[in-house]
Amino acid sequence: MKVLVDSQSGEIQGVYNSPLNFSVSGKYIVNVPTGAGSVPMDSNDPLLLIAAKKSALMALHPTLPQSFSDEFLDISLVDQTLSLGIVAAPNKGTFVMPGGVLMTDTMLLTVPILTRVSVTYDGFLLNRNVEQTLEQPDPASLLYGWDPGSSSFVDFGSGIFQVDIMDLAGAVVLVPSMQSGLEYLYANPTPLSVRLRFTNLSMVPWHLSDYLLLAG
Predict the structure, then answer these.
(1) Do 156 and 187 touch, CB atoms closer than 8 A?
(2) Sign of CA dihedral 22, 9, 124, 56
(3) d(CA 98, CA 85)
(4) Largest CA distance in the chain
């Protein structure tokens, strides 16, 4: 489910299923994956929705109690010094160019006995429909999930980003090539400072929508 939020008021405007075949200019999307199950929509506050979404995803991994997450509503958790080929902008405006690398800020794992980790993450395309713009000029029109190359709406999938857990310096790979939502065996003494590295393997820029790192 795609939850449309007004960037200025910060209020939820509506709930939709893909594709969103209308302009999302001046809005951003909170993505709630199907695997999260039924996430309550008790108010028009996106922060409450994001908290409920996080709880639902954590419930899928009951043995991984420690969590770190970012919905990219601001850029505070993006390490722009260690990143390369990115544009960092608030309200889910952060994207990674082809071959670019986004490095997150550090996260301190403190679980007493670290045995497993998991990362759930999502991304999206955000482009103008050039053909539509030529017919009905509207420079502000933006389509969520629109791929100009195929002239169609495209969902996020595996193989777009390579996601690795890195050491404190961002130089050593601790857990490589993590698929979204899967648990990986990883044992190391704690406390342990780590980062996530997102590498865009595709040929077009992709926005990062969110991530949730779990450890236990």
Answers:
(1) no
(2) negative
(3) 8
(4) 60
Structure token pair of residue 199? 């590498």
Asked if the bond preceding 19 is cis, omega within 30° of 0, the reply is yes
Q: For residue 56, what is the DSSP state?
A: H
Task: Encode pLDDT of 73-112 as tens digits.
Answer: 999 999 999 999 999 999 999 999 999 999 999 999 999 9
Ramachandran assignment for 10, one of left (phi > 0), alpha (psi -120 to 50 degrees), beta (any other):
left
Residue 28 token pair:
């951003």
pTM: 0.94
What are the backbone angles phi and psi of residue 113, rounded to the nearest 5°? -130, 105
In the chain, what are the domains?
63-215 (2.60.120)
Residue 151 tokens, joined: 């002239």
Give the number of other CB atoms < 10 A from CB of residue 10: 14
